[in-house]
Specification:
Blueprint (H helix, E strand, L loop, with lengths): L3 E7 L16 E2 L2 E2 H10 L6 E6 L4 H4 L7 E4 L4 H9 L6 E6 L7 H9 L6 E7 L4 E3 L2 E3 L5 E3 L3 E4 H7 L9 H7 L4 E5 L26 E14 L3 E3 L2 E3 L3 E3 L7 H14 L4 H4 L12 H14 L2 E11 L9 H12 L6 E6 L5 H4 L3 E12 L6
Parallel strand pairs: 1-4, 1-6, 4-5, 7-12, 17-18
Antiparallel strand pairs: 2-3, 6-11, 7-10, 7-11, 8-9, 13-16, 13-19, 14-15, 17-19
Length: 374
């Protein structure tokens, strides 16, 4: 077994990317970018362990993609994510890369590994070809280099370097700060970092997302409760009863949430909003839906259409169908023609027929966000 661990950092919010999708979730066929990068780099060398840091909201979802990766909750900064990941490292050396460097060639990986005993940190660098100005003064560009990742470090030294409360933008800066050695190797222009939306033009070689359609189904059932307001699809209905539930009980929105989560393979509503968690007591279901919508958008999906079936003896749904349609269209940020609502009864059978409660079934169709054609 080798003595090098690979850490792939992808817990960021992609704030500079200024796109509706986080860059780590750009799909390459059916693979998110973080998985594509992790697989490619790990194919170049037999690492002892592979660690991927994740945004806390995406940690459980990421675990669906691989059983050979150790997933770690990231922090608010790169350095905090690094510290969390290093808790899982038990090898002498650690190679750290940013998921945004999507095209790191095999030659750089092997060069880092071949020089691992040369210093506490091995770093790929590039020369600067343009004239450089610092504080409005031209300086000799021969003395200016561009630092890249991955970087290969001695694990114990890197841990010590990160004990400092100062924030560092890369591992070599932290290691130099404690007067440990750094050795530079030749980097690669193929290792360009994906930072801004405009950078996507230089990553055409990755290919785009697949054209697959993803179907999810959701069902929710709630009993009625007297003297409570009723909300259905975010619309307040003129009833003297509402839904018995931990939250506000909007059964239609709950079914939509489950359908959306089903389509992206992210579990169910209870995993995100447990009904035994006090913070969701009487929660506004519309707010829960907006959280889920933000999640599915961030991880690379968009809604094609929503189809709903409401089973109820009371209240009468038909007078409110258009209001519910437009309410849901606004919440989901899609055109109302992509939402269909059907209402029926249970022919007086079962708990619905006895007017004890209501059931909503939802089918959602989603697709990958086509970042190649935006």
């Amino acid at each position: 077994m080798t003595d090098v661990t690979l850490i792939v950092l992808c817990a960021g919010t992609s704030s500079r990317f200024e796109h509706r999708i986080k860059k780590q979730w750009l799909r390459i066929n059916n693979e998110p970018l973080w998985l594509n990068v992790t697989k490619r780099i790990s194919s170049y060398y037999e690492f002892k362990k592979i660690i991927v840091t994740s945004h806390p909201n995406e940690l459980n979802y990421m675990k669906n993609f691989s059983s050979s990766v150790t997933f770690v909750k990231g922090g608010e900064t790169r350095q905090e994510s690094m510290k969390n990941a290093l808790l899982e490292v038990d090898s002498r050396y650690v190679m750290v890369t940013d998921v945004a460097r999507a095209g790191v060639p095999k030659s750089v990986i092997l060069d880092l590994l071949n020089n691992k005993d040369k210093a506490a940190c091995i770093v790929p660098i590039l020369d600067v070809n343009d004239t450089v100005i610092f504080n409005e003064e031209t300086i000799d560009r021969k003395h200016v280099k561009l630092i890249q990742t991955p970087q290969l470090s001695n694990t114990s030294i890197l841990r010590k370097a990160l004990e400092n409360t100062q924030d560092f933008t890369d591992d070599s800066s932290a290691i130099k700060n404690i007067n440990e050695s750094v050795f530079y190797i030749k980097g690669s222009y193929s290792s360009k970092k994906l930072t801004f939306l405009s950078d996507l033009n230089e990553f055409d070689y990755l290919g785009g997302p697949s054209k697959n359609t993803f179907v999810g189904s959701g069902i929710d059932i709630h009993a009625y409760e007297d003297n409570k307001e009723m909300y259905l699809g975010g619309v307040k209905l003129p009833c003297s009863y509402g839904f018995k539930a931990h939250s506000d009980g909007d059964v239609l929105i709950h079914s939509v949430i489950d359908a959306l989560l089903g389509a992206v393979g992210a579990g169910d509503i209870g995993e995100f909003f447990p009904d035994n968690d006090p913070q969701y007591k009487n929660a506004n279901s519309a707010s829960l839906l907006l959280f889920i919508l933000d999640f599915i958008t961030s991880v690379g999906y968009e809604i094609i259409n929503i189809d709903l079936t409401i089973l109820a003896e009371i209240p009468k749904i038909n007078p409110h169908k258009l209001d519910i349609k437009f309410s849901m269209a606004k919440l989901l940020n899609i055109e109302p023609q992509f939402i269909n609502i059907k209402a029926t009864t249970s022919e007086k059978m079962g708990f619905v027929g006895r007017k004890e409660g209501l059931t909503v079934l939802c089918t959602a169709n989603l697709k990958y966000y086509d970042w190649k054609n935006t």
